[in-house]
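Chain A, query sequence.
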Amino acid sequence: MAGSESVKNTPFFLDYGMHPLTPVSASLPRLVPSAHDFVEGIEGAVRRAKQELQAAQNRMAQRVNAHRRELEFNPGDLVLLSTKNLRQPGPGVRKLKPLYMGPFEVDSMVATLVMLQ
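Chain A, predicted structure.
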């Protein structure tokens, strides 16, 4: 079964609770499940898909956070400022302008909140 690696199912199955008919499967005899079992099957598949998505997000977060580090600056430290989100006046194209400005001296630290989803 080809499907999404993170949810371990195809979108068709998660929407309809069954895999699409192919020429091979169309000739096989089919049993009609009761409506209750059908709904439970779809709800179970969606529940498992949500769990798989959460597990995939956790794996991605672990990989990304493995390379991150907490930085703390003290007053008097010299730092460089990234120009990634700054407009730099003057002639010339952006890609030929400096990537960092500075060094600048740190006056004080400002507490920031990081929002995790």
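The chain is about 35% helix and 10% strand. The two ends are 31 Å apart (CA to CA).
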